[in-house]
């Protein structure tokens, strides 16, 4: 396989992946609709992501929900890396139809074409998400491994943000979430990613196209959108700091995430493309370590040499998870993947990149207002 189509290939992961594949000698075609939320209104001027690939790949401006665009883009291609999706946990809770139409409907259309039209596709990879796990995997001292349900609004109103055992109600201990863990997403976004993954793996087996799904954790690094307020707390916090605005850390600041550097995500994805051992498998892709949000805010404040105030006011978003980090045993064993970047090294590279920009567009307050109107921000 040498000819690779990346849907959503002008996005953060897609553009970095395209450049690495080009370096390895692949021919890369990109299908992307250049969404203004990610790329601005004039991508050739406002989107560093698009600028990085626009003269290097074969670019098709089109939409994953348009049959003609998909048929046109897959002609002559040998593998598809399907990244095209709406991304944003909070936004998905009030733009339900949009997320379902693009993430589920677009994937269904792509698979329908692969099942019914002539093509040369020999492998199909799909970007899934840690969001499909919901609250993920925990251990109760009395009931062993458990999978907590969504946290209750009445508990969080009292400042009790921790997950509880679904059997006894006691607080539970976070453990790494493995691929065989319970799937129970707590957001519409997570539901759509679960559907994408299941459809791709199921149909891949049915029509004989080896399929692979990657459950990415929180991907970060140089190139991620600094103006999109719906994804990425590193971007959100950086934009606030650079605009000398205070940071309101949600909950009690102890909520944590698994932050994986973009280069590691690209390497893991290419391993899945090139290895037959990956076929028909699902893999976590993370950094193997949770980091709490308050520590991240303070770290960014130091890196930017800022004096802004960091507040912990107990606000929260319905649909957010408390903790999650990936068990990487499977991808290490099957594909030999080991993350190369720890968070300290990655955040240095990220903040150095951010410091290159003279100004920062801040849409964060608008996104919070939208959540408040919908009753999703407390």
Brief summary:
This protein is an alpha/beta fold and 378 residues long. Helix content is 39%, strand content 17%.
How does this model look, in words?
The chain contains 15 helices and 15 strands. It has helices spanning about 10-25, 35-40, 45, 50-55, 65-75, 90, 95-115, 155, 190-205, 235-240, 260-275, 295-305, 330-335, 345-355, 365-375; strands at about 5, 25-30, 60, 80, 125-130, 140, 145, 175, 210-215, 220, 245-250, 255-260, 280-285, 290, 310. The protein has a 7-stranded parallel β-sheet with strand order 3-2-1-4-5-9-13, sandwiched between helices. It has a 3-stranded antiparallel β-sheet with strand order 7-6-8, with no helix packed on it. A 3-stranded mixed β-sheet has the order 10-12-14. A hairpin with a 3-residue loop joins strand 6 (about 140) and strand 7 (about 145). It starts with a strand and ends in a 5-residue tail after the last helix. The model has no long low-confidence stretch (mean pLDDT about 95).
